[in-house]
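seq/struct pair 1
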Amino acid sequence: MATVTVHDDVLSLRLTRAEKILGLLRDVDVPISAVTSVDVVDPARTAVRGVRAPGYALPGHRLVGTWRGSSRLLVAVRPRRPALRVVLAGQRHDELVVEVGDPHAVAGAISRAVADSA
């Protein structure tokens, strides 16, 4: 399961080794000023749209990778669980949709960091 932290006005997403391999992904660091919104989606699958390219998707099991359509999403979720969705501006990915331990707490921490940086 991925971890998301905020430190020194930087949002850091750390993926597990399996997520990196399955999704052909890497860890992500973005400035907190690039965050335009953050929320929790339940179930996570509702936030994933577009075509997977590249990545791994086994329905009912796991979605990991990059989804492309009208926007570019970094996805690392199990479908029937809540996930954190972070919308970004001016970054490689337009959204991060990731499963974290306590998505509501992480969303609150990111929201506070965004408010503090404004």
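seq/struct pair 2
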Amino acid sequence: MTLEILTPDKKVYEGEASSVTLPGALGLFEILNNHAPIISTLHDGKLTVRGGAAKEEVFFIKGGVVEALNNKVTVLAEGIQHK
């Protein structure tokens, strides 16, 4: 699936991923390839990207929203720090 991570300032990440783990309102949740369509708010916490060029990348986000539709995941984060 294709993943984009955006902040108000810039595009932080764009590439292929096999899974994305996100900090949701009720705890961590994971989006996998062919996931059902979803829109969710995100809390402050760790976002983990698996697959793609690097085997695993970790970001710390400050709130935001995620949308998954047709194997494209878009994360709109209020702020982000790459580990």
